[in-house]
Amino acid sequence: MTGADLPRRRIGQTALQVPVFGFGAAHLGELYSLVPEAQSQATLDAAWQAGVRFYDTAPWYGRGLSEHRLGAFLRSKPRGEFQVTTKVGRTLHRPRDPSTFDRSPWTGGLNFEVRFDYSYDGIMRSYEQALQRIALDTVDALVIHDLDAGFHGDMQATYADQLVSSGIKALEELKAAGDVQAFGMGINNNLALETVAPLVPLDFCLVAMPYTLLDHASLHRGMAALQARGVSAIIGAPFASGILVTGSKGPQHYAYGQASAEIQARVLGLEAACAAHGVALPAAALQFLLAHPIVASVIPGGVRGDEVRQNLASLQAPIPAAFWAELKDKGLIDPVAPVSA
User: Fold this and answer.
1) Which of 75, 94, 100, 103 is surrounded by the most beta carbons within 10 Å?
2) Is the dihedral of CA 103, 106, 112, 118 positive or negative?
3) CB atoms within 10 A of CB 9
4) Model pLDDT for residues 29-40, shown as the tens digit of each residue
5) CA 283, CA 244: separation in Å to the nearest integer?
6) Residues assigned a catalytic role
7) CA of 107: how far to CAs of 29, 75, 262, in Å?
8) CA-CA distance, 211 to 217, in Å (whole number)?
9) Mean pLDDT in the chain?
10) Alpha carbon of 76 to those of 38, 91, 136, 302: distances in Å?
11) Whole-number Å distance between alpha carbons of 151 and 164
C-alpha cells in the first residue's frame, strides 16, 4: 500500500477530508541543521513518489524557507491531487540590518523578521504573504499558530483578544467564501489545549506535544473537550520532536529540547516492550495516535526520502494486541487510551 491508497478522515463538520498520513515541512526550514536545496527537493519528490498528498507548512518554519521550498515543489503538480495547509498569526518583514540579523532558533532559514498579529488585518496579511511564498492561489486550511504564553508572555492576553475580537472574522470570511475549507489552531502544550483552543470556534487543532505515545495526559481533558465540540485533531509532532524515532541511544530530542530523566525512563520502558513483541518504536508511536477517534491525520517530517518511506511503512506495520496490553499493564499508556486493533 502506498500513501495514495491510505484512508481519508473528515475534518470536523466540514467537507474537507485528509489522508491519515501527511508530510510536516518544519524540518525544511532548517531547525536542527542545514538542509541543502537539492536534498530538500529530493525529499519532497520521494514523498510524492510514495503517494503522500497532504503537506503542512508555516511562515515560521525557517522564516519563510519551508513555504518557499514546498511551494517550489508543489506548483508543478496538479492542484486537485494534493492538499496543503499553512499557518497565520505571524507576518514576515525585512530586518533593519540583514547583515547582522539573528535567525535563531533556526540553524539556517531566511533573513526575515517576525511580527505577531492575530487581528483581522494581520490574519489576512499573513494569509496573502503565505500564498505568494507557496506560489499557489489556494490552500486547503489555515492554522492559527502559536497563540500561547510560551511564545508571548505578558502579551498573551493582547494577542488572544486580537483573535477573539477580529482575527476570527477573517478566518470565517475566508471559509465562507470558499478560499479555505477549514481552519484550526496549533497547540503546543496541555494548558493551551485546555484554555486557548476553546476561545474561538474551530474545525480542528493541530496538536504538537500534548498527545503522543509519551504524554497523553490530555486524553481526559483537552482531547476529550475537542471530541465533545466535534473538533478534529491533526498530530503535528507524532515522534515528540524525535525521541520516538531515535530512542534511548539517539540525541534524545523531546518537546524541542532535551528529554528529562522521566521521559528517558519511559522511552526505555517502551523499547523493552517493543523488543518483546517485535514492534518498532516509530510504528507504535504513529499507530497509537491514529487509534484516537478524533485524530484525522499524523504529519511527521523528514529531511531525507528514506525517512518518509520508513514513516509510511511504520504506519502499516502489524502490531499485536498483546503489545498494547503490556503497555497498559505497565502504566506506559493510559488504561483506557484508544489503541489500534
Assistant:
1) 103
2) negative
3) 18
4) 998 899 999 999
5) 9
6) 56, 61, 87
7) 9, 26, 28
8) 7
9) 95
10) 16, 26, 10, 21
11) 18
